[in-house]
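worker-3 :: picked VanZ-like domain-containing protein
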Amino acid sequence: MLRFHILYIILSLPVYLIFVYLQQRKNNPKVYISLIFHGIFYIYVCYVIKYTLFPIPVNENYLSLVRPGTTFKQNISMQPLWLSGHFSFTKEHALNILMTIPFGFIINYLIKPRGSARILMLGVLVGICIELIQFGISVLLNYPYRIIDSNDVVMNLTGVVAGYLIFRVISSVYIRLVDTLHMKHNSFTQYIYDCGKTY
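worker-3 :: tokens ->
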């Protein structure tokens, strides 16, 4: 089995942050604050990759044993949940929603312009990308090592939207509190304020 190791994050995170710094240093006066959120987001994405794509069965002896009894058709579901007469909300559905809530929250500190339409688009893309990568790995292995389910995309989108709504609520409360109390900002709190104020 090919497993995800925390060493991957330790080695790649500095490279990613250096890349972001070089991209933003001329146009973003708060680049160092931005790097904090980019770092958090990068670690989060790495753990999403860990739990959605790994472990990957690469041992040919193992694959030769499991391939004959498994077909792609058995492990691909394209039926929307609302068309299923026996649909029930499962633990997997809940986990798929919870997994992408941080995405819907943190992404607002990284992108401009922000807005509900863009969040919806990103939410759909997140779910589709995960399923497509799982399918691509399965094709390379000639073995469906993960169940490809269109409903996972719906659950991932739901999580992203939930994270976005949480961001909107927290930002609204924070901005109102700051304005009411005339609180002074440091660089970090100003960054938080500005990101929430763009809506």
